[in-house]
Design a protein that fits this description.
Number of helices: 12
CATH class: Alpha Beta
Order of helices and strands: HHEHEHHHHHHEHEHH
Number of strands: 4
Distance between the termini: 27 Å
CATH architecture: 3-Layer(aba) Sandwich
CATH topology: Rossmann fold
Number of domains: 1
Radius of gyration: 17 Å
Shape: globular
Structural class: alpha/beta
Largest sheet: 4 strands, parallel
Strand order of the largest sheet: 1-2-3-4
């Protein structure tokens, strides 16, 4: 999803695009899926690469890891671009859990669920792509096949359900503790929402945790902004990165 943006930024930036713990081509440990822990994974990657400060660009669960990173290592984040997903325990999170049926999958886990999904990863992913996009055709066949193959790897669905999602309750507790400790983030933040998804409310969501927030809305896009409207997103993100 980040390739179109990375191809632009690599001309004059060092671009680091890690797969989170248990996702993509990363390894599949049984634990460590609290977002504070994954933020420390990211810090370790940067340390290994001798990179001190970054401009952070995140989406979905990446937002959650991004907040945990920015809150724990504020001096290392000069700007943060956050896209179309809330933060556990903060903002409107509890209202979302109580009232929004689109997050049914947060509690879709357990050994029987994993057995049901095994070999049918594409069916599950297609539901997310089709229901959470403005135009499902924007998620092309190559994209859908790519992610289905990744989620068919041993441990991948287990890590998604029993790792990333199952950690949300603990993430909420840790985020509230982090916020109580550090207060609002001070670096400039750009909050982006798709107009068929979070839209302008993404800005107010991030204003719960950051004091310097700009907002942007991507037209004709649902949740999958980088797949649905990459050129709009790239223009907004690169302008923010280049600005003072």
């Amino acid at each position: 999803m980040w390739q179109p943006l990375a191809e632009i930024l690599v001309a004059d930036h060092t671009v680091i695009v890690p797969d989170l713990r248990g996702m993509g081509l990363s390894t599949h440990p049984e634990d460590g899926y609290e977002k504070t822990s994954q933020a420390r994974d990211l810090a370790a990657v940067l340390d290994r690469l001798a990179v001190d400060q970054v401009k952070l660009v995140t989406h979905d669960i990446g937002n959650m890891v991004g907040y945990a990173f920015a809150a724990q290592f504020q001096e290392r984040v000069t700007k943060w671009i956050v896209m179309d997903a809330p933060l556990p325990g903060l903002g409107t999170w509890e209202t979302l859990l109580a009232n929004n049926p689109s997050v049914w999958h947060f509690n879709f886990r357990g050994p029987d669920v994993e057995r049901l999904v095994a070999g049918r990863e594409r069916i599950l992913l297609d539901r997310f792509y089709n229901e959470m996009s403005a135009k499902p055709a924007a998620l092309d066949e190559d994209t859908r096949r790519h992610y289905a193959e990744l989620y068919a790897r041993p441990g991948a669905i287990h890590n998604a359900f029993g790792g990333q999602f199952a950690a949300f309750a603990r993430d909420a507790e840790e985020n509230r503790a982090l916020f109580a400790k550090v207060g609002k983030l001070r670096m400039p933040v750009l909050a982006i929402g798709g107009d068929h998804s979070y839209g302008a409310s993404m800005k107010s969501e991030v204003e719960f945790v950051a004091s310097d927030v700009q907002g942007a809305v991507i037209a004709d896009s649902g949740h999958w902004i980088m797949e649905e409207q990459p050129q709009q997103a790239i223009a907004i993100i690169t302008k923010f990165i280049a600005g003072n």
